[in-house]
Amino acid sequence: MKIYVVGLGPGGMDQMTGRAEAVLEESQVIAGYDVYIDLIRERFGHKKLLSTPMKKEVDRCHLALSEAVKGQTVSMVCSGDAGVYGMAGLMYEVAQEYEPVEIEVVPGITAACSGAAVLGAPLIHDFSVISLSDLLTPWERIEKRLDCAAEADFVICLYNPSSKKRHDYLQKACDIVMRHRGPDTVAGFVKNIGREGESGTVLTLAQLRDTAVDMFTTVYIGNSQTKNIGGKMVTPRGYRGV
Ligand code: SAH
């Protein structure tokens, strides 16, 4: 009885690891959120595919576990990395309610890394990753994390920067960061990483504040040293004595 919790990377098959592809091939059942199941349907359509809508994460784990206890090898897929705002933790928690099932987490390229590659080299130095989603974290705590990360001069990478209900959160986040960093700080965002319509934009923090982004976007705010080099977002690591 085995469940793999698999990070698919940001988009298509070409950004999936060889290990991820191998465990999907080995599995009889693949479960996941509709959108991710669609990403792999072409290649793994011959498997039993169980897709569930967003916000049904606990149900999805039960679904996968009930297949596994029947003796099936099951993969639960997530975009990016399964352990970064993914399903890996929840799977361990829900599995406690079942007879022992072996769980293996198979890592993938998280959006922070795949998006960074599109923009240039923004994360080269210490960085912090913050999700602006207040579905599971109170907004006051998110504000505190933004404030502390900005004060400590981390490069900041933002996941879940927007949704229909949270259209002004990025603006609020930029205002908090600007308590500690100038409006000309180099920033960037990448939409649809590794998918159709991928596009990266490098701009200033002040411009980012007034930009509308959607939930398929990952946002980057440079530290005090980050530069715009010919349209690429680059954080120096200090090799050149900067
Ligand atoms: N487990 C995923 C993150 C899920 S949270 C990972 O490791 O990448 C969802 C957020 O991740 C989105 O709101 C967006 O900010 C970011 N994201 C995930 N995939 C993306 C993609 N292909 N393009 C742009 N942003 C992406």
Bound molecules: S-adenosyl-L-homocysteine
Biggest sheet, spatial arrangement of strands: 3-2-4-1-5
- Categorize the overall geometry: elongated
Roughly what percent helix?
A: 25-40%
Could you provide a short overview of the structure?
This protein has 242 residues and is an alpha/beta fold.
Characterize the structure shown.
The structure is a single chain. The chain contains eight helices and 13 strands. α3 (57-68) crosses α4. With 242 residues, it is of the alpha/beta class. The protein is elongated. The mean pLDDT is 94. The structure holds S-adenosyl-L-homocysteine. S-adenosyl-L-homocysteine (SAH) is lined by residues 10-11, 78-81, 84-86, 110-111, 115, 159-161, 190, 192-195, 215-218.
Search tags:
elongated; single chain; binds S-adenosyl-L-homocysteine; five-stranded parallel sheet; alpha/beta; five-stranded mixed sheet; 13 strands
Secondary-structure blueprint:
Layout: E1 2-7, H1 18-26, E2 29-33, H2 34-44, E3 48-52, H3 57-68, E4 73-78, H4 88-95, E5 102-106, H5 111-119, E6 120-121, E7 127-131, H6 139-151, E8 155-159, H7 169-177, E9 186-191, E10 199-204, H8 205-209, E11 217-221, E12 227-229, E13 232-234
Parallel strand pairs: 1-4, 1-5, 2-3, 2-4, 6-13, 7-8
Antiparallel strand pairs: 8-11, 9-10, 9-11, 12-13
Helix pairs in contact: 3-4
This protein binds S-adenosyl-L-homocysteine (SAH).
S-adenosyl-L-homocysteine (SAH) binds next to helix 5 and strand 11.
